[in-house]
Amino acid sequence: MDPNTVAETVAATPYGYAIAMIGVAMCVFLCGIGSCIGLFKSSAAAAGVLSENPKLFGKVLVLVLLPATQGIYGFIIGIIASGALGDTAMGTVEGWALLGAVLPMAIAGLVSGIYQGKASANCIYAVGKQEPLSGKLIIYPAMIEFYAILGLIISIILVAPFIA
């Protein structure tokens, strides 16, 4: 078979669109899972601390909400990447490339959301014991946030050529 014919056949298949769609959905889904697990951990810790001292609500609220950002980042990448899904005749190579472009955010969002929730929970317990530490303790889960932001930036850079 002629190599040009093979390339044209691969470029014209509808599989690329499906692969890209799975990648975009997977990014949103995995980031959402990471946020849900992280929020479960941090909110459970907050419930325990607040049951003993309800006045700490404002001080633990930010720590509870930090893991939610990964879900937001995944949603942002999902919106941006869905702009590349307008053409249902997307080639298989392009579909795999778009899936690969959203993977940094998908993986970083899942893993950092879970571990940020665990870090936040431990910081919430510390605030329950020593209230004045609340301002200082936010830095620990925020360091994990940095890696979610790196995943977001890389995915934006990799998705950008698809929507240009």
Largest sheet: none
Number of extended strands: 0
How many structural domains? 1
- What is the CATH top level name? Mainly Alpha
> Which ranges are low-confidence, i.e. pLDDT below 50, for 5 or more consecutive residues?
none
Helix content: over 70%
Using only C-alpha atoms, the radius of gyration works out to 20 Å
Shape label: elongated
| Separate helix tally | 7
- The SSE order reads HHHHHHH
In CATH, what is the homologous superfamily? lithium bound rotor ring of v- atpase
Structural class: mainly alpha
**CATH fold category name:** Four Helix Bundle (Hemerythrin (Met), subunit A)
Estimate the strand proportion. under 5%
Query: Whole-Å distance between the termini?
Result: 34 Å
CATH architecture: Up-down Bundle
Mean pLDDT: 91
What is the subunit arrangement here?
single chain
